[in-house]
Amino acid sequence: MTEFPKNFLWGGATAANQCEGGWKEDGKGESTADHITAGTVSSPREYTDAIDPAKYYPSHEAIDMYHHYKEDIKLFGEMGFKVYRLSINWTRIYPHGDEDEPNQKGIAFYRDVFNTCHQYGIEPLVTISHYEFPYYLAKKYGGWSNRRCIDFYLNYCRTIFTEYKGLVHYWLTFNEINIMAMMPIGGIMAGGLLPEKEASMSFFAGHKETPEEISRRFTALHNQFIASAEAVVLGHEIDEHNQIGCMIAGQEIYPYSCNPKDMLASQSAMDMANWFCGDVQVRGAYPAFAKRYFAEHHVTVAKEPGDDEILRNGKVDFYSFSYYMSSTVSTDPEKNKASGNLLTGTKNPYLEASDWGWQIDPDGLRYYLNEVYSRYQIPLMVVENGLGAADNVESDGSIHDSYRIDYLRKHVQAMKEAIGDGVELMGYTPWGCIDLVSASTGEMKKRYGFIYVDKDNDGKGTMQRSKKDSFAWYKKCIASNGEDLD
Ligand code: BGP
Q: Per-residue pLDDT tens for 91-137?
């Protein structure tokens, strides 16, 4: 009978820009995320150059984990977490990104966070860069398209690898690095590639890029590949016990039909969405199909001599990914679009979607795990998964989120099946284990947590934490190592 491995890393995941707040405290500098306003599913977020006092920027306060982390980590401990995935905000360590000396208060903050985790037997899993970038670097150097950012990033890595040696053993170099290979919005979310003028995020979603703009985006991605590969080598040098992974927005893109044209469309969508970045980070080289894609899109990547060797030497130790949904591709232009998301595709008639339009597909997780493992044969980890839903607080304060439990149960079962299929799976950290700000819409209303946070879309609320029904369910799931899922 299939079981989860004894040392399976059960836990939860957050990101600094979506939960910490304290955006100007103790010397923290501004991040690109601090310049993005709140939106909703129907009104996109906006990027503004100056901070407009009339607008609401959800990262500035978020759920104020900067001041609540002890209480929050204690609750994670109560659920039995073995691992907690969080990100370090680069601008707490290097406020501008290019200083010689780090901000000691930022260093002390994360040290205390990690010590608190260990107090509860929780191993931290740190994302070094999760959808934020020093605003100063973005303005002065033009973001990741400038090669100098590799050195700034490595300087930041050296500092945190050294400071937190022995406290942190698991690292991810860039969150959802493949977002930059797929769409213009990835440039601002992940690459510090700011637009010339202020613009609503919908501008990026619908924007048709020029060959120069695509080349800039792929050059930025190439620079992140180099930075990631060098960080892997550096991390191993500083502590041989470090395990360093990539983090891919995992996407299963089915052909809508068995029409060979749909099959080809699905294959090429999978290539660019998943394997393009996975191949570089796991196999240490660009995939063969990149050549044709670059030629057809007139992409020129500014590579330097020696880059191929750097990529070859900096292969990751494990492949981690987020998984929320699957999508479907059709060559028939008449098919509907699923919407309300960073990603789009044709509606799959066999699946139901969340209120935000994300198509729920636990079998897709099993399928994806098998595909990735067959391709790379290195350990895998699901570092994001979950259901974004509006929760209702009853008059006695209870929150009955059976829909979330149902979603998670089916995905845990799917992982178990994949382990039975032979997949080597290290762990599972569902997204937003405590309610936090949504990345795509900037809302609080789109909640993922086992722990409810009293705060609304306009930033009002007491910030009080309370347990949802899913809290007790997940605690039981962890205690039984994934056996008791009722
Ligand atoms: C991933 C991001 C996370 C997170 C999650 C859920 O793409 O890595 O930062 O937010 O998606 O998305 P959303 O917050 O838009 O519901």
A: 999 999 999 999 999 999 999 999 999 999 999 999 999 999 999 99
pTM of the predicted model over 0.85: yes
The mean pLDDT value for 253-280 works out to: 96
Residue closest via CA to ligand 1's atom 10 equals 439
- Closest C-alpha to ligand 1, atom 9: 439
243 lines ligand 1 (CB under 6 A): no
- pLDDT at res. 77: 98
Please tell me the predicted confidence (pLDDT) of residue 338.
45
- pLDDT tens-digit profile of 25-83? 999 999 999 999 998 877 888 888 899 999 999 999 999 999 999 999 999 999 999 99
Check if 123 has its Cβ closer than 6 Å to any atom of ligand 1.
no
CA of 324 to the centre of ligand 1 (A): 9
Q: Is 15 in the pocket of ligand 1 (CB under 6 A)?
A: yes
**Nearest protein Cα to ligand 1, atom 3:** 439
Instruction: Please give the Cα distance from 410 to 228 (Å, whole number).
Output: 33
Atom of ligand 1 nearest to the CA of 448: 16
Q: What is the mean pLDDT of residues 448-471?
A: 97
Instruction: Give me the chain's average pLDDT, please.
Output: 94
pLDDT score of 232 more than 60: yes
**Structural domains of the chain in order of their starting residue, each with its CATH number:** 9-479 (3.20.20.80)
Find out whether the beta carbon of 159 lies less than 6 Å from any atom of ligand 1.
no
